[in-house]
Amino acid sequence: MKILQVLPGLDSGGVEKGTLEIASAAVAAGHQSHVLSAGGRLVEQLQREGSHHIQWDIGKKSLQNLLEVKKIRKWLESEQFDIVHVRSRMPAWVIWLAWKKMDPATRPRLVSTVHGMHSVSRYSAIMTCGEQVIAVSKSIRQYIFDNYPACSVDKIKLIYRGIDGQQFPMGYQPNSDWLNDWYTQYPLTRNKLIICLPGRLTRLKGHLVFLNLLAELRTHNFDIIALIVGDEDPKRIQYARQVHQKTVELGLSDRVIFTGHRADMRDIYAISTLVLSLSSKPESFGRTVLEALSIGTPVIGYNHGGVSEILGALFPEGALNLDDMDQLVEKTAQILKGHHAEIIPNDKFLLSNMQDQTLALYKKVIQSERTA
Questions:
Q1: pTM (2 d.p.)
Q2: Greatest CA separation found in the chain?
Q3: Is 331 in contact with 301 (CB distance < 8 Å)?
Q4: How far apart are CA 245 and CA 250, in angstroms?
Q5: What is the strand order of the sheet 32-37 is part of?
Q6: What is the chain's percent helix, strand, coil content, to nearest 5?
Q7: What is the pLDDT of residue 197?
Q8: 2-162+351-367 belongs to which homologous superfamily?
């Protein structure tokens, strides 16, 4: 198969990571893998793993992108892809507008993935444009059912995101070199209980709740260092300032470390006593929750969306009622004291399953009857 995946950029994030994972699986299976995006830090890895990258910026939310439709159509006709897989709304509109006017007998087959619970609108409905539509969790599947009834049920395929069990083995521990580098950079974390909140500095990720939790925990006399791991969002600088200011106001400046973006999350999970997921809106999946649990680090997260599905399967004790600060403090204190149930090994949300099922879906749609 000649496969094209399309997304806005390749810097960081779950969609980007999933794109690379499917690309590498396609190459390993002997297929031709291409990715179209505006570029980013992950392009080098993509190409190193055997895929081709086409730099074409059709991801910005601008009507200017509509000027690219004819160029995209001509390019698609010349490249003769078997599969085009769209993963984000603006690029999906551009691709779909180009694709629908191609010859139905020869155009590539179209697959889309609904990665998030976007605001319900005609703009967001484009993510159900595929001849097959991938839902990354049961929560996303239900979201499609509830909000886009025009999307035929038999088009929707549940394919859970997954992680590599060998990359995130139960009981994983960082090596001494990593630990030495870490403690050199962050000496305050040595011999401390560590609570970690991964995710970019956006309001939805719950940083202010996290800080309020830390303030409440002071009465329990825990010797805690908190890690906020993630980039500042260039579009939300004001929010990042608010988080830093709140840290100072609560007297937590000596207890909270802002690490920025880190590529060594597995090691950070491993030294953490607890990882939190405090997204106020349901997440489509919850990769950070799964990664931490897979190596044996407890996670507390709001009991909604994909996070609920992961916690329900691997660590039910970590499920938290939305916005229940009393319960959050209580559960956190119990885990910091070492009182928690055993984490169930992950044999459900595996990368190999996601890769195999996605490539099988590509083959299925190629073999299916074409419609005008």
A1: 0.86
A2: 69
A3: no
A4: 9
A5: 52-55, 32-37, 2-6, 83-86, 109-114, 132-135, 156-158
A6: 45, 15, 35
A7: 98
A8: Glycogen Phosphorylase B; (3.40.50.2000)
* Under-70 pLDDT residues of the chain: none
Residue 53 backbone phi and psi in degrees, to 5: -115, 130
Query: Which pLDDT belongs to residue 371?
Result: 82
Residue 61: its pLDDT value, please? 83
336-340-344 Cα angle (round to 5): 130
**Burial of residue 21, with CB atoms counted within 10 A of its CB: 0-12 exposed, 13-18 middle, 19 or more buried:** buried
Q: Please work out, in degrees rounded to the nearest 5, the angle formed at the alpha carbon of residue 128 by the alpha carbons of 63 and 93.
A: 15
Long-range contacts of 333-337 (CB under 8 A, 24+ apart): 333/217, 333/220, 333/222, 335/273, 335/274, 335/298, 335/300, 336/193, 336/195, 336/217, 336/220, 336/222, 336/224, 336/273, 336/274
Predicted pLDDT of residue 277: 97
Domains of the chain, by residue range, sit at 2-162+351-367, 176-336
CA–CA gap between residue 91 and residue 76 (Å, rounded) = 14
Burial class of 109 by CB neighbour count within 10 A (0 to 12, 13 to 18, 19+): buried
The single-letter DSSP state of residue 343 is P
Instruction: Enter the tokens of residue 217.
Output: 């925990």
* Per-residue pLDDT tens digits for 305-364: 999 999 999 999 999 999 999 999 999 999 999 999 999 999 999 999 999 999 999 999
For domain 176-336, give the fold. Answer: Rossmann fold (3.40.50)
